[in-house]
Amino acid sequence: MKIAFIGQPNAGKSTIFNGLAGYKTVTANFPGQTVHYTISKVKFEDEVFEIVDLPGIYSLTAIDMAEFESRRYILSGQADVVINIIDASTLSRSLELTLQLAELQVPMVICLNMIDEARRKGIEIDKDKLSHIFGVPVIETVANKGIGLDKIFSSSKKAYYEKLIPKIQFFHKDIEEKIEEIERTIPTDFLKNLPRRYIAIKLLEGDKELFEEIRKHPEILEKINNLREEIKTTHGRDTDTVISSERHALAMNIFEEVAKVGEPLKSFREKVDDLLTNKYLGYPLLFSILFGIFFIVFEVGKIIEEPLIEGFNSLIERLPNFVEENSLMFFVLKGLLEGFSGGLGVAIPYLIPFFIGLTILEDIGYLPRMAFLMDTLMHRIGLHGKSILPFVISYGCNVPGVMTTRILESPRDRFITATLSVLIPCAARTTVIFGLVGAYIGGLAAASLYIFNIVVIMILGAILTKFIPETAGLIMEIPPLRIPAIKNIFMKTWLRLKDFMLVAWPLLIISSIILSFIEYLEINFILNKIFSPVVNWFLGLPEQTGIALLFGILRKELSMIMLFQAMHTTQLNTVMTDLQLIVYTIFTIFYMPCVGTMGVLLKELGFKKMISITFLTISLALILAFTVRLVLSFII
Amino acid sequence: MKTLLDIDNGKKIKILKISGGKSIRQHLQSLGVHTGDIVTLKKSSFLGGPVLLEVNGYDVAIGKGVASKIEVEELE
């Protein structure tokens, strides 16, 4: 039996799914996390259930990618039972989706999740009454505490075997007449797998996808347009608004019938919430929270990274004892070890604490509040509040940063945010900034590089907006603050880490081996000569740095480690001037994303955009590094 | 005509009209914000920031641009 979870964002679908299927999806207290759906098989009482976790949708209107995908899945008729998961504390709104799902005429179970939160808000729901109205089973759960989850299987079985198809709730008579008229007009073979009523309503609403289909029958199209006009004249509003208000009214009626609203418990949480988004205090709090997390991540990271990398380095140094030095095998092994340790050196020390911190912020529900606070600033660069999330994550690592652009509605915002995200100095580039500029010139110089970076990103954002105009502004739900479950935090951190390991790590190892080959073939010298015009003539850097920059594409911190090797010293200030160190570091910050990031850009945005972002960043790095060289040469 | 930007903190308001195209309207509708709804303005726009609305017990943030397209009327 195939059961599909569907519900509004943040209703707890993924938490329920994880509770039933073992941890396989990522949950968050951020609306719209699941973009691709996940399937899992679970055995319950001799029956195998295939559970499908669909992206959260507010309605069947299909506003963003996630909604479109969910809707297409349910319409495909693959699900035997639809489990409508509802955040009980937002029942009145959630019922609007339930009403739309009822139109699809598939056996259904209504699952009232977060029933504890509803009680805290003073909402008492009569589930038997609700079950009577829709004619389908209604169950109560508290997913993050695992309460009531077992009832999902038994009630799905009941709904499936007893064919408990939801009862249609009717609109006002005049609208029903129009719906009937369309139902009669559409030919029986038109999208014959879909219920007639669903098609009729969607046509009245002016649904894009269905309109494309009906265009093949011009006479029907004309009739529908006439009916739409009729409604518009009698109601004084567009039909989609009329139907949406009808549904809203129905939902409110049902809500009033089944729910009693008492006094909410004025909670401590609301006071905290008020403080977090306070127009004055919100910003210093935001700054301290972010700064605190980064500080902890780097302090903890350093303690773990150093012994880890040292261990691997001594292993690499001892390699000649096992295989003949400078043989092909030696270089393959060396490349393999370097690539492997590189991934480990970033993943374990920095990504794990970073992901834990991020997950806590996410599960508490701080991130939407951050988006709220940052909306004004983000509009300056043609984006809106939600884009702050990928940016912040990118300071840890660009790979998950780019992945997070999925939460944005428009492809335009996703592209611009991803482009700007890859310019943000990740943990690896931070090592370079502090290792080169911080160590040899000073902390102030290092800090100004960060500010310089932010200024460049803002200017670039403003320029990109000129070419690709801004779309609709911020509209987003701010979910209540929640206390995160520890189990969830660790599982999610693990899933995020897995994403990094599957996408970035293999690429790292392969390219590390390739670079090892270059070393084996002793073409360093030739490569340095090839890059010389750019590196030496244009940027004024020593010729040997070419190969170090090439290695930096693998992992940005390699551009520093390899620099020590290429210059044959760990005292770089004896062979490079301050100006050269700054130019080199700026170039490293901006020039093309590392291979791991390119991999995820390819996956999220496609080949063309990945190439254009790469090209853009290289040009940007050249221009910036050259300008800085010119300007600073007058000052220093 | 007053828009969401002209309302003070904590005021109860009725939404009269949502202009600005179908996509904005549908996005708002799907989040439970409809013409005719009575909502509370929890936080007004500050320095061009978004407003925070309370709709039937949950919060919705609306950017300044969108908020300026929502006509409202203050209730006592």
Question: How does this model look, in words?
Answer:
The complex is a heterodimer of chains A (636) and B (76). By secondary structure, chain A is α/β, with parallel strands linked by helices. Chain A has 3 domains: 2-161, 3-Layer(aba) Sandwich (Rossmann fold), CATH 3.40.50.300; 173-261, Helix Hairpins (Orthogonal Bundle); 282-635, no CATH class. In chain A, 64% of the residues lie in helices and 7% in strands. In chain A, strand 4, helix 3 (91-102) and strand 5 form a beta-alpha-beta unit. Chain B is built from 2 helices and 5 strands; from the N terminus they run βαβββαβ. Chain B has a 5-stranded antiparallel β-sheet. The longest helix of chain B is centred in the middle third of the chain and has 9 residues, at 22-30. Chain B has helices spanning 22-30, 64-67; strands at 12-18, 38-43, 51-55, 58-62, 70-74. Chain B has one domain (4-74): Ferrous iron transport protein A (FeoA) (SH3 type barrels, Roll). The radius of gyration of chain B is 11 Å and the shape is globular. Chain B has 76 residues and is of the alpha+beta class. The A-B interface holds A 58-59, 61, 63, 89-90, 92-93, 96, 121, 123, 206, 237-238, 240-241, 244-245, 248, 264, 277, 279, 368, 371-373, 375-376, 379, 384-385, 472-480 and B 20, 22-32, 34-37, 43, 46-50, 52, 55-66.
Task: Give the key terms.
heterodimer, A: 636 residues, alpha/beta, Rossmann fold, 6-stranded mixed sheet, 9 strands, B: 76 residues, alpha+beta, SH3 type barrels, 5-stranded antiparallel sheet
Please outline what is shown here:
With 636 residues, chain A is of the alpha/beta class. Chain A has 27 helices and nine strands.
Give the helix level of chain A as a range of percent.
Answer: 55-70%
Count the helices of chain A. How many?
Answer: 27
Task: Give the proportion of residues in helices of chain B.
Answer: 10-25%
- The neighbouring-strand order within the major sheet of chain A is 2-3-1-4-5-7
Biggest interface goes to: A-B, 40 and 35 residues
Number of domains of chain B: 1
The termini of chain B sit apart by 17 Å
Largest sheet of chain A: 6 strands, mixed
Our Rg estimate of chain B from Cα atoms comes to 11 Å
- What is the CATH homology-level superfamily of chain B? Ferrous iron transport protein A (FeoA)
Structural class of chain A: alpha/beta
Tell me the series of helices and strands of chain B, N- to C-terminal: EHEEEHE
| CATH architecture field of chain B | Roll
- Cα end-to-end separation of chain A: 73 Å
What number is the mean pLDDT of chain A?
86
Q: Oligomer, anyone?
A: heterodimer
Count of helical regions of chain B: 2
- What portion of the residues of chain A fall into strands of 2 or more residues? 5-15%
